[in-house]
Amino acid sequence: MINHRGGEFKELFKGLTSDLRRIFQTESDVLVVTASGTGGLEAAVVNTMGPGDKVLAVSTGYFGDRFATIAETSGADVSRFNVPWGQAADPAAVLDQLAARPGTRAVLVTHNETSTGVTNDLQGIAVAVRSLGDDAPLLLVDAVSSLAAIELATDAWGCDVVVTCSQKALMAPPGLSLLCASPRAWAAIDARRCPSYYFDLKQYRKGAAVGETPATPAVAELMGLRAGVDLILAEGLSRVFERHHRLAERLQRGAQDLGLPLFPDPQAASDTVTALRPRSDADGLRARLRERGVIVAGGQGQLKGQIIRIGHMGCVSDEDIDAVLAALGQSL
Ligand SMILES: *Cc1c(COP(=O)(O)O)cnc(C)c1O
């Protein structure tokens, strides 16, 4: 490994975080925490809210539930707005929830719910939250399975904290969380003492200014991430979004043609993960796909054994989609 306090590292780190700002579509610092995505979500929570703070957790599935549980674990007073699995959260309904709970300090939302294959209307939700003006709660976004694959204009939409991690659309190995915070979020972060030493974002901001992280970073992971970011910037962010949309449509149409129904509301179907509900034996179908060299995920939580989930985020081509459809046809 190279010295993580040396010049070579600083060059890698500064170049990477500056390029990540383009992918996050933000002017704020992008901070890098050595942790899986869940660690980044916990960092977002423990830095911005404390025991007793009122929080609205919009949950559209397994990961929305996890974000709510993280906030509960930190002692926040969490109200869960549970949307039926397979549907997206309606921005107007989020606003109604906020109206019913004055004094809410933060709204938690999952941009793309990986467990159900649903993309929420994050822009609509952000507009709804922002319509509350100066008293608006902070909007904390789990963008783990959307960022760098589905449009997410962090600053333009007014998202306050956006969290992703290395192993989804950024195409790097697992192990890094990446997040940014708006000026409003930093004001909240600066106004309180973070109860976590390792996740104290103030320390990460201080380090970022000089091209370092507070503790030893996962240096090799950063080199992997550099490669993923290079691929994205070479293709161009808007082209990356278009490709994901085109491939999702190709897969979803092909699956319908095979008689495999989409699990989510088609209006809300994700461009990064497709959930299909076979008429029977989803896990048997997965096993037959695996024999053909195609590995797909099953259901999580209440959807265990009910659906199959096909990931198509990051380095995916038309040929990959066609190969999956061929294997699906044979397996059925
Ligand atoms: C994968 C994922 C996570 C969790 O990430 P880990 O790296 O497993 O901690 C959180 N939220 C969403 C939406 C995800 O897809």
Blueprint of the fold:
Layout: H1 7-24, E1 30-34, H2 37-48, E2 54-59, H3 62-73, E3 77-82, H4 91-100, E4 106-110, E5 112-113, E6 118-119, H5 122-130, E7 138-142, H6 154-157, E8 161-165, E9 176-181, H7 183-190, H8 201-209, H9 219-235, H10 237-257, E10 273-276, H11 282-291, E11 297-298, E12 308-311, H12 318-331
Parallel strand pairs: 2-3, 2-4, 4-7, 7-8
Antiparallel strand pairs: 1-9, 5-6, 8-9, 10-12, 11-12
Helix pairs in contact: 1-9, 4-5, 10-12
The protein binds pyridoxal-5'-phosphate.
What does this structure look like?
This protein is an alpha/beta fold and 332 residues long. The chain is built from 12 helices and 12 strands. It has helices spanning 7-24, 37-48, 62-73, 91-100, 122-130, 154-157, 183-190, 201-209, 219-235, 237-257, 282-291, 318-331, and strands at residues 30-34, 54-59, 77-82, 106-110, 112-113, 118-119, 138-142, 161-165, 176-181, 273-276, 297-298, 308-311. The strands form 3 sheets. The protein has a 7-stranded mixed β-sheet, with helices on both faces. The protein has a 3-stranded antiparallel β-sheet with strand order 10-12-11. It has a two-stranded antiparallel ribbon with strand order 5-6. A hairpin with a 4-residue loop joins strand 5 (112-113) and strand 6 (118-119). The longest helix is centred in the last third of the chain and has 21 residues, at 237-257. The protein is globular. The model has no long low-confidence stretch (mean pLDDT 97). It binds pyridoxal-5'-phosphate (PLP). Residues 36-38, 63, 110, 114, 142, 144-145, 165, 174 line the site of pyridoxal-5'-phosphate.
